Amino acid sequence: MKNAPSARSRWVWITAVAIIVIVTAVTAVLATRGDSDPDSPDPSPDLTAGDGCNAVDVDYIDLNSQISEPPARVCFTIDTESRVTIGAASLDPDTPITLTVSTGDATVIDSAATTATADPEITATLPAGDYLIAVTAVADSAVPAPPFILVTESAPASTPAASPAPDASALPAPADCGDTIPLLANGVSVMVDSTQPYACLELPQQSFVKVGADSSADPQASADLRLAVLTTDGTGTVLATTDDTFGTDPEVNTALEAGTYVVELAAWDSAAFTAVQVYYDNSGTFIRQGEPATSHADLSPSICEAVSTIEVGATMTADEDEPYICVTVGSAARLTIEAASLDGQDLTLEVLGFDDSGSPYRIAWTDSNPYATGLADFDPLLDQIVPEGTWVIAVADVAGIPGHHYDLRVIDSQQ
Questions:
Q1: Residue 392 belongs to what domain range?
Q2: Beta-carbon count within 10 A of 204 CB
Q3: In the predicted model, is pLDDT for residue 387 greater than 80?
Q4: Cα 350 from Cα 249, distance rounded (Å)
Q5: pLDDT at residue 225 tops 80
Q6: Domain containing residue 84: CATH number
Q7: Lowest mean pLDDT among 95-104, 254-263, 324-333
């Protein structure tokens, strides 16, 4: 995703934005609908003919983007019929907003307002053409919109969802675990494929666990995998999900209560996959070493002699063009590492170490926040066991452009 330039103040941590829950589904950036409720003001957008995308000063945006503080009125173009989802989240908790989507000539298609439980969101199947997005204050459409986050997503109307919500009736039952479905154990991986994509996890007590998938056993593997941890209570509730941690292999680090869980693998576009190993660790001793991003492949251990450092428990602001920060961990610990862009970059976080030959390897990567509860929670966050040693925290945007002007914090998750 791409972020527009931002004029936000220095700190944009997830706890700073009072936006109430938007549930993240397995396959979508946006899942909660921003429908109106009886207590919400009736959205009344002030849009008139000739006030649409023909305006001389209107800005056009790319879809499938996440933009911090865009103009209150922007347009977009689609070349083919598409299913488009648009969401907005006010950065001022005291000023709810109305989101309106219109045709290029300002004929309203749909609108939604902030409610007590959701940010406004609109999903519609649209023919090719130009479209207008307008955001206003709920109380008075003439009042300028407060600063807000705009998130858009689109796909051809004929394309099915990349990874549909799981069918609870098709998931293994607890009785299947250890029988027809393999059980995971510390240090023991199990093999799955697209014909039988499940494994079971039984926890006798609350644990912070690592569950991942390794497709390297198949040299021809090309499927882009997604991993989900689900309940076995008949609802198939997704408790954790991710992709792309190690190339196209996913790895989840999450806290789970005592109980039995299903681990499911799926591939984007329903691609077939074979010989994928699912691994599990709750001891904090298994650390996978993966290939670093190509932009970091030439790093050497001496990098930490030339860049800034951060201590566990500290926060700092990175200067312009400061994509690497080093941290020394005295003993293995569960750490939270979070970066927040101060000028609109859509950031990724990567943690790198070096092998005996001095070559870099990846132990963690993310472009999202697993605990996000609102559209404004888009800064990347890692929560996992980091071994003893000195590590490089690499910050870049999703296109690989080095991170610049961002806040970084590293804290002990258990304190």
A1: 294-412
A2: 7
A3: yes
A4: 15
A5: yes
A6: 2.60.120.380
A7: 95-104
